[in-house]
Structures are given as structure tokens and as C-alpha cells.
């Protein structure tokens, strides 16, 4: 039996996130941030930094609280409920990666900035084509003077605001590595793009750009698994908020003199959404628990992402369906759950790719 009771640290992370997001997640504030020219929601980001939330998963020797993926997922679940953009996920996972794998000098250089919000290290994982980040197509050449990367990473979450990127690359012999790329490095082009959920994402093009290599193939797998589970935590928050909104609306909206919940079709769609959301919750927290205990979470992360994709699509669609015409009204906030769920569905490998990962593991 899995105990889903939060620890004191996980509760504190979630409560702190609630306290910050509550003050910055009114529909008018979200619309203003999404339409702003600046990539970063500065008031929200400054509040997150001032609260200390950005550093709780960084080691104490670097100014953090020494927590980890479980506390991060607790905070990201809250962010998903509020559907407001802030680069907490990329900054946290990127910072945790540097904390774990980078040499001391690089840790001392970057991690204090991660804690205070001035440094955002975004994992740049996506590529054109059906490639998972564990099999990157971006290439790196290593010389006596360092390493140079050539390739493209697409739709990097919060990439427009990032100061650094973590880039999975491969050598000519097929060896897979992770490199740290500075946004301002020569031969790097960052092109802003908007994703389905209106994130300030970016494409990153590199042509012989200098980078610092960190870690090996196992670190690429570590980075991917942590990004996947963290994204599932955001998706869980989105689905929880979506099912709650649908339940409240169908309980109060009347048709033919009765609440919508009187009708069997409505009840069935709501029940299915509730069950799907519970499945995402169970699989996400199990995968996070494995990662927190330094276990191989490849299969658990793939299962969690499959549920987050499949259940996310069904639940988000049901939320719009149960709201009727209001679900398609862009001035009504419920449509954001659908946009976020669809983006999370496709990000980091959709359900088919996750099934392939599970199958590869079973075939070994």
C-alpha cells in the first residue's frame, strides 16, 4: 500500500506555493501575463524567489533547503491547479541536475542564482521527429579547447526566459551526454514561440556553439525522468482543478428544472474524469517516490506519462463538454485547463512513445 500523506516538507512546499499563486492567478492577471511582451511574469517570479520556494530543492550548501523531487512535485501540482506560467519546473529540474552532476566550480557559479531566481537553467529536450531526449539528434564535437554543439531543440518550456540550457547531445560514436549551454554563447539563436498553453517557449538553434559537457548517458536518463515526472505533477494539478470546476458547474447549472448532475450522461463523464485523475495521481506519486529513492524510474515515469497523456486528454475534453458553450468561451477561465492538458499530453513524448519505452523495458 502506498501512503499518499504528505510529509512536513511536502506540505510546506505546497502551502508556500498556494500562498504565492493565490495572489497572482486571477484571470485578469493571467491574461495580462500571457499577453505581455516580457517572457517572464516578473511579479510572480519575484514573489516565488522572495518566498524561498525556488531553492528548497537545492542543496543546503548552495543556499537551498536540501529537499527534492517529492517537494517539487507538491509545488508543481499547485501550479497546475492555478494554470499560471512560471519557469519553476525547468529552473528546479535544471538546478537539481547541476547540484547533482556538475563540478564544484560550476555549482558555486550557478546555484546561488537558481535559488534567488536570477539564473534559469531550462532542460532543452525536444527535437523535430519522433525522438525521445534519451536518443538526441543534436551532435557534439569534443576538441582540446572544449566542446561544440550543432542541432536544434524545439519548444523549450519557458525557453524565452532561460539564461542557460541543458542540452542532451550525441557524439559520432553514439555516446550520449548532457551539455550546459549559455544563452549568450556564440552561435546560439533563441527564437520565441508560443505553445498551445500560451507559454513563452523558444526554439534553440546551435551551430558549433561552445558548451560544457556534464554527465553521461545515465545523467540524460536522470534528466528526462525527472522532467517527465515533474510534468505529470503539473498535469495532475490541471486535471484536479478541471474536474472540480466541472463538478461545481454541473451541480449548480439546471436544465429542464433539474441540476445537470441528475442526468446519467453527465454523471458518467464526471465519474470517468474523476477516475482518470486518480490514476494520474497514483502513477505520478509512485514514479516520484522511485526517483526520490534513487531507483530506476524509467518504467514508472513512462507509465505516469502515459496516464497523464491519455487521461489528460479525456478529462480536459470532458471538462469542456460538461460546461457546454461556456467551455469554448475564451473569456471564461475553464478553457485554460484544456489548453494546458493538451500541451502536457504532447510534451516529452506522447502516449505511443511511452508505450514503446515500457515495451523496450519488458523486452530486456
UniProtKB/TrEMBL annotation:
InterPro entries with a match to the protein in the record: Acyl-CoA_Oxase/DH_mid-dom_sf (IPR046373), AcylCo_DH-like_C (IPR036250), AcylCo_DH/oxidase_C (IPR009075), AcylCoA_DH/ox_N (IPR013786), AcylCoA_DH/ox_N_sf (IPR037069), AcylCoA_DH/oxidase_NM_dom_sf (IPR009100)
Cofactor requirements of the protein: FAD
Record key words, sorted: FAD, Flavoprotein, Oxidoreductase
Keyword match Iron: no
Sequence ranges assigned to domain Acyl-CoA dehydrogenase/oxidase N-terminal in this UniProt record: 7-117
Record carries keyword Oxidoreductase: yes
Residue ranges of every copy of the Acyl-CoA dehydrogenase/oxidase C-terminal domain listed in the record: 230-361
Residue ranges crossing the lipid bilayer per the database entry: none
SUPFAM superfamilies: Acyl-CoA dehydrogenase C-terminal domain-like, Acyl-CoA dehydrogenase NM domain-like
Protein family according to the UniProt entry: Belongs to the acyl-CoA dehydrogenase family.
Protein name: Acyl-CoA/acyl-ACP dehydrogenase
